[in-house]
From TrEMBL:
Keywords: Amino-acid biosynthesis, Aminotransferase, Cytoplasm, Pyridoxal phosphate, Pyridoxine biosynthesis, Serine biosynthesis, Transferase. It comes from Propioniciclava sinopodophylli. L-glutamate binds at residue 41. InterPro entries: Aminotrans_V_dom (IPR000192), Pser_aminoTfrase (IPR022278), PyrdxlP-dep_Trfase (IPR015424), PyrdxlP-dep_Trfase_major (IPR015421), PyrdxlP-dep_Trfase_small (IPR015422). One of its GO terms (molecular function) is O-phospho-L-serine:2-oxoglutarate aminotransferase activity. This is Phosphoserine aminotransferase. Its EC number is 2.6.1.52. It catalyses: O-phospho-L-serine + 2-oxoglutarate = 3-phosphooxypyruvate + L-glutamate; 4-(phosphooxy)-L-threonine + 2-oxoglutarate = (R)-3-hydroxy-2-oxo-4-phosphooxybutanoate + L-glutamate. GO terms for biological process: L-serine biosynthetic process; pyridoxine biosynthetic process. It is found in: Cytoplasm.
Length: 358
């Protein structure tokens, strides 16, 4: 029996995507082989990768001024690859520190350049975000980095930060969830394992005028210029991830594109937040204007009930609701593939749990 999987990642995939992949698993494209068995240099797979890129450009509105790279190493790898590709030793990189993943990106960047944290919401325990115009990016900064959606704390920017420097976004947990202004960014990168496919693939969308400047010590596999020139195939790419990303993008297009995803995700988030706000038993600590559509943390009135809540939820087919180990409580991740009836099932369970234990 399929459960409602609220994992923060790797996350659930659309049932239609899994069913299609299942039907093609042993014989992909009448090749007599699985897509996992064909050469990444074969005409068939090169065409598959090209179609995936074309679909990504169509869905996100990515112009030819940007290169689309399909790499490995996840967001953590890009925490290092970004300063290696966009800065020189002694440069200043500006950061907005808005949560745990911002902190990790900052720590990695400090190995390669001077870091200026121009806004920091740690004093609020990362329950709010910096307002536009409330910070200043140093003149000459190599770039400004921000995390549009903080997976652990459940915050999401409602705007793209403005800067004279290129803006870099780690969109791992929000990409494809709503329309995005690609042209407002110099670089967008995202691990695939939340809204795009399985783990092992990271997508990088980089403006072409930012290529051609890697440091000499940049590993070739993370040299965006080399990868762009080789269509992301200087080594064997994560072929199954590329294939599943293509199927997921087909599903997004069939579901109304990013506008359809936005409507779907807004409805799910409003349902869950609305119930939490109306309940004296549950609470969400995030400033309402910055609440994430993708990751909804919530607290029970009595933390001693946390383990029982998780256990009973699993028995009801609602899995992976425990909050991140660093913050505790609960967290429901409502990525694109989570259907509305999954969120309704969670709300119904929460109502019953409150009646029994409230």
């Amino acid at each position: 029996m399929r459960v409602h999987n609220f994992s923060a990642g790797p996350a659930m995939l659309p049932t239609d995507v899994l069913t299609r992949a299942q039907s093609e698993l042993l014989d992909w494209g009448s090749s007599g082989m699985s897509v996992m068995e064909v050469s990444h240099r074969s005409k068939a797979f090169v065409a598959c990768a090209s179609q995936t890129e074309a679909s990504l450009r169509e869905v996100m509105g990515i112009s030819d001024e940007y290169a689309c790279l399909f790499l490995q190493g996840g967001a953590l790898g890009m925490f290092a690859a970004t300063p290696l590709n966009l800065s020189a030793a002694g440069d200043t990189i500006a950061f907005l520190n808005t949560g745990d993943w911002s902190k990790k990106a900052i720590a990695e960047a400090k190995k390669y350049a001077d870091v200026a944290v121009v806004a920091d919401t740690a004093a609020s325990n990362f329950t709010t975000l910096p307002a536009p115009g409330s910070y200043e990016v140093p003149a000459g900064a190599a770039y400004l980095h921000y995390t549009p959606n903080e997976t652990i704390r459940g915050l999401e920017f409602d705007h793209v930060p403005a800067a004279d420097a290129p803006v870099v976004a780690d969109m791992s947990s929000s990409i494809l969830s709503r329309p995005v202004d690609v042209d407002a960014h110099g670089v967008i990168y995202a691990g695939a394992q939340k809204n795009m496919g399985p783990s092992g693939l990271v997508v990088v969308v980089v403006r072409r005028d930012l290529l051609g400047r890697p440091r000499t010590e940049t590993p070739t596999v993370w040299d965006w210029t080399v990868q762009a020139e080789a269509d992301s195939m200087i080594n064997t790419p994560p072929t199954f991830g590329l294939y599943l990303l293509g199927l997921t993008l087909d599903w997004v297009k069939a579901s109304g594109g990013l506008e359809g995803m936005a409507a779907r995700n807004r409805e799910k988030a409003e349902l869950l937040y609305g119930f939490i706000d109306a309940s004296p038993f549950y609470s969400n600590p995030v400033t309402p204007a910055y609440r994430s559509w993708m990751n909804v943390p919530f607290l029970l009135a009595d933390p001693e009930l946390d383990k029982q809540f998780v256990s009973e939820a699993e028995e009801a087919g609602l899995t992976n609701l425990a909050g991140h180990r660093s913050v505790g409580g609960m967290r429901a991740s409502l990525y694109n593939a989570m259907p509305l009836d999954g969120v309704q099932a969670l709300v119904d369970f929460m109502k019953g749990f409150e009646r029994t234990h409230g």
